[in-house]
Amino acid sequence: MSWHIKTFDELTSLEMYRILQERTAIFVVEQNCPYQEVDGKDIASYHLYKEEEGQIVAYSRLLPSGVAYPEASIGRVIVKREYRGKGLAQELFRKSIEFIQHELKEDKIKIQAQHYLEKFYSSYGFETISEMYLEDDIPHIDMMRITTS
Question: Interior CA angle at 99 toward 48 and 28, to 5°?
Fold first, then answer.
């Protein structure tokens, strides 16, 4: 298995297809949540993913500041069902933060997190900055991580 990080233009059609296939399988089908998964932000984002035997097994979308929020953001964080519980989410999230800090030179990262994952994201230095709210009938919170030099 190997990690990749690519801009939208660097992704092949097949890679983007597999990413969208996996995101839809989790966010739309598994979570039974019909919504506009392809939202126009992929083009301006970086795509971090781990691939095994032609399958996307872990993925996150890294958004530079100004794309979704004034701050940089991490979104669409997924681990394929069969690969959960093996530490991939932790590895994925650590790599996501490192890329935003070191490559994009951003010191603030804002995320829109499913409420039940608050403790997971808190373990990476994110602090809750909103009340719980429903997004597509799923409890969410906004969280922020600020790195000080």
Answer: 35
Could you tell me the CA-to-CA distances from 46 to 43, 104, 149 in Å, in that order?
8, 10, 24
pLDDT for position 3: 95
Residue 34 pLDDT? 76
Helix H or strand E segment including 81? none
Q: Assess contact for 118 and 96: CB atoms under 8 A.
A: no
pLDDT for the residue numbered 127: 97
Buried b (16+ CB within 10 A) or exposed e, 53-77: eeebbbbbbbbbbebbbebbbbbbb
Quote the CA–CA distance of 16 and 35 in Å, as a whole number.
Answer: 19
- Domains in the chain and their CATH numbers? 2-106 (3.40.630.30)
**pLDDT, tens digit, for every residue of 20-76?**
999 999 888 888 877 778 899 999 999 999 999 889 999 999 999 999 999 999 999
End-to-end CA distance of the chain: 34
Among 72, 65, 37, 52, CA closest to 2: 52
